[in-house]
Amino acid sequence: MPSETIIIEHPFSQQIGTQKLTAHDINNRPTGNGNITELLKHNPTVRYANDADASMSAGEIKPNEISIHGEKFYNNNFVLNGMSNNDNINPVGDSDRNTQGQNPHELPSGGTQTFWVDTHLLKNVEVFDSNISAKYGQFTGGVINAQLIYQPNLKTTTQPHKIKEQLINTIQPPILS
């Protein structure tokens, strides 16, 4: 019998050093608190803090700190709709003491992300851990690039009454008489 070799030419869906999550992937992944960093648990280059998912932090809504390729957790670049989502106000602060900022010489501890976005609001997420474009910049770890499902534009922000009507109609359809 002659053997036959079938060659299928199809571009590889993900480049080396890149993880892409679509809305379908995001909705099918189990997350406890529903934040961006929980979506990355299957990425082999992402490491979580030692106290992540510990019994003492079960009710915590703050996203877990992540390290990409062993870099410090505050050296990642979080991008949301093309804008920086990095919290630059003392992300490395000591969270165990003086968290209220009573001491004027110490800032209260921050986090790595300014906004803690729920995964239900995400259209897609890209994680870059190597061969990263210089357009992102401002990091030595990795880049987490997220896109929201709804992106406000000039038309929607100048016509809020129409958005309110649409929202009311989707929640409670108009009564026809």
Task: Write structural notes for this entry.
The protein has about 180 residues and is an alpha+beta fold. The chain has one domain (about 20-150): Ferric Hydroxamate Uptake Protein, Chain A, domain 1. The protein has helices at about 25-30, 155-160, 160-170; strands spanning about 20, 45-50, 65-70, 75-80, 85, 120-130, 145-150. The longest helix is centred in the C-terminal third of the chain and has 12 residues, at about 160-170.
**How far apart are the termini?**
75 Å
Gross morphology is globular
| Number of E-type strands | 7
CATH fold name, please?
A: Ferric Hydroxamate Uptake Protein, Chain A, domain 1
So how many helices? 3
Sequence of secondary-structure elements: EHEEEEEEHH
Strand order of the largest sheet: 1-6-7-4-5
User: Which residues sit in consecutive blocks of at least 5 with pLDDT less than 50?
Assistant: none
Determine the strand fraction and express it as a percent band. Answer: 15-25%
CATH class: Mainly Beta
Oligomer: single chain
- Integer average pLDDT: 77
Q: How many domains, in number, for the residues?
A: 1
**Largest β-sheet summary:** 5 strands, mixed
Main location: membrane
Family: Belongs to the TonB-dependent receptor family.
Membrane topology: Multi-pass membrane protein
Subcellular location: Cell outer membrane
Question: Which key phrases capture this entry?
Answer:
two-stranded antiparallel sheet, TonB-dependent Receptor Plug Domain, about 15% helix, about 180 residues, receptor, alpha+beta, Ferric Hydroxamate Uptake Protein, Chain A, domain 1, 7 strands, Plug_dom
